[in-house]
Amino acid sequence: MNIFMKTNQNAVFVGFFLFGLLVFYPALSSYFFADDFGFLAISRYIHNPLTFFNNDHFPGSFYYRPFGMLSWWLSYKLFGIQYVLHNLVNMLIHIGNAYVLFRIFGLVRANMKLNILLALLFLVHPLTISTSMWLSDRFDLLATWFILLTIYWFLRYRLEGARAAYFSALAVCMLASLSKEIAYFTPLLVTIVSWYIYPNAIRTWRIKLSEIAPFYGAVFLVFGARFVLLRGTEKLLLGEDSLFTVLMGGVWRWLCLLPNFYTFYTDFAQWNVVVGILLLVAIFILAGLSLRALSRPREISWSMAMLGLTIILVPAILQAPVTFISLVYHSSGGFDLSNLVNSRFYYLSFVGFLLLAQQLLTVACSVFINPDTNLVVARLVYFLLSIQVMAYGTLSHSLGHGWSKLTNGQTRNVIEQASLALEPLSLPQKGCKLYILNTPDSRYFREFSDSIIKAIAPQQSQMIHCLVLTERSPWFQLMSREDMKTMQAAPLRDAIVAGQPIAPTLIDGLAFIYLNVPDSPEIALDPNAMFIEFDGQKYVDVSQQMRSGSKRVSFFSARP
Q1: Model-level pTM?
Q2: Would you list the domain boundaries of the chain?
């Protein structure tokens, strides 16, 4: 029997991999985008990855995610800038999440067909595929993976009493909190499992407390490290608003947009009306059957339902400072960048929704007195879930094409042209300032110009001694820690927040610095400055024209 079950589970994993690859395939050819270049550049110049664990390592000092950064460092050292392989890593983590979720379903309810369909829905849903397509969302993928593994191993421990399962759960709980802050509530999930799932009269509250205390201790250690290393950054996240305003506003915005991200119905309704209607009908029928299950409350595992509800709602609170500022949803009827980059705020939450759905739909398949009626209802549930899997899989496949088209568009061409233009230049060994001008489609290039060039330019040893800018200052710049001590930044000026210059962030041999570029003629007269300009086909050196005054450029800063 065990061999048979293991064979079935292996077959399910292979099926998940093949189906996930089919849906995700168009996105494998997508290029790096926005924040990706920052993580690549940091990984390129960091020599000792252990410094991620005992240093401030995130531009802006907002986050403490050492294991997530370690994954970027490893993938860069293994794959360089081979974007297909980086995308494959994200895809495999996402498939792993779907498979672990399936295994958790199996520990709770034995309905194999329902468990497979619900896990497949997680695998192919546009919400989850969108999160896994953008490489910068790897932090969410990793945190979710380790949270799911914590639940899985702790359930195994409660079922089998194996100490190995307990320590496995404790280890992955620590890794979850080291991947992203959203995992800080993982001990709460362990508490729900310990106190309410598979209760045992022999186990006293002291024994239960001793089981869960190490999980709180592990997360407290990570949070303590974050507090010590990143002190004062909370003010930058909150801005001028109070904590109460940010939390309430962020949670409210998150709750209001939850139906949009859970269903993506507006995209279907405008993309394919027939599919949109079928999907809406399936959602309403399944919702009705789930409510019907409430008539048999004793058959519902309310502890698992509580676990699902906790996973649904707690991420809204933990992510409120960010969702308060940036969360939006556009009913575009097609590929929309805002929807894709904001899907990450619901990735983990969707796990909780499916855990809750499993409880209700399992009971719904047996709620009637007549066994034949229950069989018909069960088949209806499987059919409706299959419709959702196929419909959402089709939309996700289409979104993959849209994402690949966007990232491989004009911006990629500009990036590669700029990198080629640097090869023949004789750059100063220290104090270099490189201005890349007249860049078309330049919004993201301007925001990340320094990290883009330092991530992909072939002159690795030279570029770390240069500051790279466009007509505006990028979000942050990387430079050698030694150069920072002696470099004359003028005419560039320190970026100011709350009346104070933003202090450089030091890690390993690197420094993150934050500078503004003023609209001043001094820029053209800077002896350490070089200027290249896009003439419509390629970049050309215009340093002499800038210094002679025959060419004038308006510079501006994106910060105070």
Answers
A1: 0.90
A2: 2-32+81-406, 413-548
